[in-house]
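Known limitations

Structure tokens in this collection are predictions and should be treated as such. Users comparing against experimental data should check residue numbering before alignment. To illustrate the layout, the record for Aspartokinase is reproduced below. The input appears on top and the generated tokens appear beneath it.
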Amino acid sequence: MSLIVAKFGGTSVADYSAMSRCADIIIANPNTRVVVVSASSGVTNLLVELTQEQTTDERRKQLIKQIAHIQYQILDDLGRPQEVAARLDSVLSRIAVLSESLSSNRCKATMDELLAQGEQCSSALFAAVLREKGETASAFDVRQVMRTDSHFGRAEPQIETIAKLANEQLFPLLSSQRIVTQGFIGADEAGSTTTLGRGGSDYSAALLAEALKASAVEIWTDVAGIYTTDPRLAPNASPIAEISFNEAAEMATFGAKVLHPATILPAVRQKIQVFVGSSREPERGGTWIRHQVEEAPVYRAVAVRRDQTLLNLHSLQMLHAQGFLAETFATLARHKISVDLITTSEVNVSLTLDKTGSDSAGNGLLSEALLQELSQHCRVRVEDSLALVAIVGNKIASTPGVCRRVFEVLEPHNVRMICQGASPHNLCVLVAESEAAQVVSALHENLFEA
Ligand code: ADP
Ligand code: ASP
Ligand code: MG
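Generated tokens:
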């Protein structure tokens, strides 16, 4: 069987009519056996607010009411099937219990269990929408197979165990029915719920596709594919019909929110094609991400990642010495921080850290403990409110004239840092957050609309 895993994001499962459109997409293809859903649009944000320390009892009640309103509206539109109503009641009371418990004990495992409840609701509702349309479908608790480590808020999937469990527990169900399951969440060995970080449902779909050796993953969202830049920033951005794994990975890494940065990894490992399309307008087609593509243009897209932090480390110990970087990276690794861009001079190292590396509850990366540890061997300066703009393409490092074209556009802006040369697929500049939109649209105009 040529198996397809289809993932539907928050706006695609926002309400009953959106879910109904997605169900039609699934029904049109008998090979789509596994459906991965995000929480209905807005629900995870509400749950994140419920996990925050400063949320008052009064606000907590309002938030739970808002979540209940979104979910029960879909249930009403479905005609209130008994078993789904009971399931929603139980998830909603669990949300109340977990958020109450967090107000006195800020336990990370409880936060993840709370954040996971949005996907519990949407998957139960979505399976019911498929059944309403005459399909044999059920909701499957992904925690039975999506094994991760216990790094709550940003758990690491355990690839081999996931493959084993998915083949034992999920695969046998697929011949007789469609399975609707949750993105974003998993469970550790002890059975505690974990989450993969915000936007992680794309990653979940790719991991399940890898485990089940699917032939394709479909990412259904609110745009008709991957565009030359975020269409919200440049109205003239155009959809890309076909793009390589490398280019798509760079785009996702550098902020093209349409794909979670880790989505491409499982697809590359198993050479699984990825499709990105609009669940609202499936007839418009979308983007295929493939191992081999026909065209490899120098300029493919412009991506932007906001909320960047620049760490500037200064130490005279670096002068003609060895080991400073090793020590710095070891400290960062102990704090589970992955560094993105780096530039060095004789006595300075600048590196960027990324808010998307923060955990599902939005807790930042830079802790007091980390800063103190770093300060023991160098002077540390932290700059915020920066954005990283990346030009993504091919042979960027070996094509004459790229820098001239890019710098021409950047002339009116202060560029805080430039990274080019390590990868043939990108050129990155760090600019003030407040100028990012302008830089992106000017670059897009110059590189794609000329
Ligand atoms: P979902 O909830 O379906 O996962 P997301 O909001 O996470 O959807 O991702 C879709 C959004 O990604 C689009 O609405 C768009 O604004 C944004 N985006 C950023 N860069 C790009 C790009 N290059 N191409 C298409 N969409 C992009
Ligand atoms: N619901 C989660 C989030 O909002 C995961 C996802 O949508 O991919 O981050
Ligand atoms: Mg997303």
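For this record: Residues 82-104 form the longest helix (23 residues). Residues 9-12, 38, 199, 221-223, 226-227, 229-232, 256-258, 301 surround adenosine-5'-diphosphate (ligand 1) (CB under 6 Å). Please report discrepancies through the issue tracker.
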